[in-house]
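Page header: ASSEMBLY MODEL / two components / 822 residues total.
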Amino acid sequence: MEDCLSKKIEITVSEAEKRTGRNAMNMQETYTAYLIETRAVESQNEGQCSPVDSLWRRYSEFELLRNYLLVTFPHIVVPPLPEKRADFVWHKLSADNMDPDFVERRRIGLENFLLRVASHPVLCQDSIFYSFLTQEGGWKEMVNETGFQLKADSRLKALNATFRVKNPDKRFTELKHYSDELQSVISHLLRVRARVADRLYGVYKVHGNYGRVFSEWSAIEKEMGDGLQSAGHHMDVYAASIDDILEEEEHYADQLKEYLFYAEALRAVCRKHELMQYDLEMAAQDLTSKKQQCEELATGTVRTFSLKGMTSKLFGQENPEQREAKIKVLEEQIQEGEEQLKSKNLEGRDFVKSAWADIERFKEQKNHDLKEALISYAVMQISMCKKGIQVWTNAKECFSKM
Amino acid sequence: VVARNKRVITAAAKKKKKTPHPLYPGGIFQNTLLYGKSVHLLILLFFSIQDLSLPNGTPVDTSSPASSSSLLNRLQLDDDLDGETRDLFVTVDDPKKHVCTMETYITYRVTTKTTRAEFDLPEYSVRRRYQDFDWLRNKLEESQPTHLIPPLPEKFVVKGVVDRFSEEFVETRRKALDKFLKRITDHPVLSFNEHFNVFLTAKDLNAYKKQGMALLSKMGESVKYVTGGYKLRSRPLEFAAIGEYLDTFSLKLGTIDRIAQRIIKEQLEYLVELREYGPVYSTWGGLEVELAEPLEGVSACIGNCCTALEELSEDMSEDFLPVLREYILYSESMKNVLKKRDQVQAEYEAKLEAVALKKEERPKVPTDVEKCQDRVECFNADLKADMERWQNNKRQDFRQLLMGMADKNIQYYEKVCGTA
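Prediction written out in full:
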């Protein structure tokens, strides 16, 4: 792997702060700002810490950065941002953007985003990205000056292309289907998981009632009293344990969410390919029709029905000079068209090649990350079971002393 | 007489070796003394009442249900309930459905093995239905009103909500009926009751039932404590305490029952979600290549979780809840016995007062008052003995029950852990 930025500097999003300010319409708004800290990685351990640079950014600036990267590197699967609004919540989680738990998880997500970009062999070299990390003032203006917004493909154009493209690369078609299904299955999974978490929370918490009633009961008992009382305490511990367990599970959910959003990025690359391919097909079609026109004019035969042909039959053909002129223009256009087609073809092939390379890289990353996520989920479940066994064994011991 | 009593004391003392030494600091039962001592003292008292003749030599005619000599024998025989010297074993099993024109019902096989002289044969096997158990319980209540009779599982079930013939229901009921008979078997007085004997041995119980009814109408129950309308002067502290204890006890049990039901409900709802959760991982696995295996693994694991959880909820429903409900019923019937005891004492006090007021010559002490006094003291003795036994059994039952509950939960987690 080439020298990624992530190897040269340490990046952290270390803090989040609530701020108030005035927005574009001069209305007061509250938002959260995040502190990005960067520090050069010492290649030799001289024992001295390099100075930490830091600046504050808010979520909308992260969004701007990402949009820039999307447009500038359409063949790259651009890492996603953490969700803008709290989604897939279950009853205990707050859907409020200002909720400290949500802000904390977002902070982690933003850090993750920066690290992913910094470790991407292509993206990490971008200067705008570097400035995002290091230059507090004037960054927004810098981004806008690149004029990337103009390069952006319109949604409508992309949609049109999706429907009309005739010969997209089969691999991209498959990939498109895959990313659609992935999106659907992960969002289903997250939704059900949220409900599962909700129910599990209920089960654990009701056990807390045992604690109270055992305590009351123990007051009227003789020999049974102590056993009941201490068992009740364990029931309280059991009921309380679910909070930590579910908090850990939220991290797992966040890992899944990242890939849910990654699916969208995959989709974007496929769309770009479709667009380019459609463009190519349109250019080729245009060229063919021009060549045909040229031929017709030159030979005077009308191969296919054309309005020109009709009118010339009805109103008489043009005189030779007019025809010559037309042929000349057409030939020039054809020349241009052929060159354009050639370069478009080249562009297209380059795109496919580099996109596919990044897609392979992404696939490996995805498999690795998700496997780890699943393993850690299993570990979480095992740990939850072990805690359960512990608590009930303790309770059982208390009961045995009754 | 003295020799006899000595043996009784030893027997009682031996019986107590398993009970932990109950020194209750400031406890309610302080004036009852330590359980062990109290029981044997009461038995002594009981016998002294029995054997004492009145000042003028007339033997006291007691209407207490158990005569002294046979009681003594029984106590000697039954001194060790560890099963080492137990001589009566009863089991309820093998439920069968009977379909008749008028009705459909279930019978259970009741098997008895015994070496007791009261039984003609060493082994019996009869079939009984719930009605018969209900009859037995009523008979016991009538004939042994001073004792605590174990409860039966609930008689009525709301049709349509519970299936009377489902395997789970029948099994739960069978266990409860088995418990019922075993508790009677363990009781030193109840197990010698003649109705119990007939219940265990008669081929045709219905004939006996009819006969019993006829006899009843002829003689009139000799031991029917038809008292009423007497106001109790002062309830002895220990019985007041028992009453209060039972009130709180059944209250707490009711709460626990509700909590357990709530937990089961939540668990079932959790199960519903889990059932949807697992397959989604499978679907995802179908999309992937490298990740297919781990995803399938998670799906399978969740599936196992579902099965284990189902078992846990079922076990709780079938084993845990019925015992709670049984003890609540038990408490109710015990409170009734306490009320009867109060009545007996009230009657005695009233009659005593009446006699004192008359202030006539006292050639003979009216047997009426003496009878009442006896009744009171018998009742108190029986009740105390039974309470102590009940407390012990209750402690063991709950210990077992709660440990069982803990065990089930542990098993559940172990199952899930294993597959994860």
